[in-house]
Amino acid sequence: MGNVFAALVAIACWAGLAIQFSATYGHHQQVIGTLWTLARFFTILTNLLVAATMTWIAMGKRLPPLLLGGVTLAILLVGIVYGLLLHGLHPLHGPAMIANVLLHIVTPVLMALWWLLFTPRARLKWNAPWLWAIYPLVYLAYVLARASEDGRYPYPFIDVPKIGWMQTAMNAGGIALGFIVCGFLLVWIDSWRPLGSRKANG
For the whole prediction, is pTM greater than 0.90? Predict the structure, then answer.
């Protein structure tokens, strides 16, 4: 059952990514240009990570609970940041709207449900949130370095030319703090949740 649910999560991710690729390609008319544009977004990179992870699980493979927890937390960050900071900023229609719903709402919810129901429970340690934080920090360094070259910032809360370095640092710090707090919450939930496989996933 866990593999079937994982396949459902993977399908939602791949579908959202494919639709988003198609919508973005319509503007660029170049495969490489489209991929390069999409690679600037945390949403796309994280959904790609979820898609690969859940495809692996759906094939009957195993992954460490530490990795599964980190992937779950990262996609939850996508949903939370979208809901609090990005929702409604850019009206979308047609395929772009469908991709937006899949990537920002459907996949975070499905991944969280899969983690609650099927990930081996009581396997996470209290140092896990610090390890999970490496991914968004590396992304932040990557996207700021990239934007300093081409001037294109993917999100308004890290748009340095518009809001300045001080506000950017404050925004990034606030999101990082929220991420780590949510990470500790995830570990706490893992310590008592009644559901989840007893068998270690790697």
Answer: yes
- Rounded CA-CA distance 106/89 in Å is 19
pLDDT in tens, 170-186: 999 999 999 999 999 99
Q: Is 92 left (phi over 0), alpha (psi -120 to 50) or beta?
A: beta
Rounded Cα gap, residues 125 and 188, in angstroms: 9
Query: What crossing angle do the helices spanning 160-192 and 65-81 adopt, rounded to 10°?
Result: 130
The whole-angstrom separation of Cα 135 and Cα 139 is 6
The span from the first CA to the last CA of the chain, in angstroms, equals 18
Cα→Cα distances 195→10, 188, 189, Å: 21, 14, 11
What is each CA distance from 142 to 40, 94, 135, 162, 165, in whole angstroms? 9, 31, 11, 19, 16
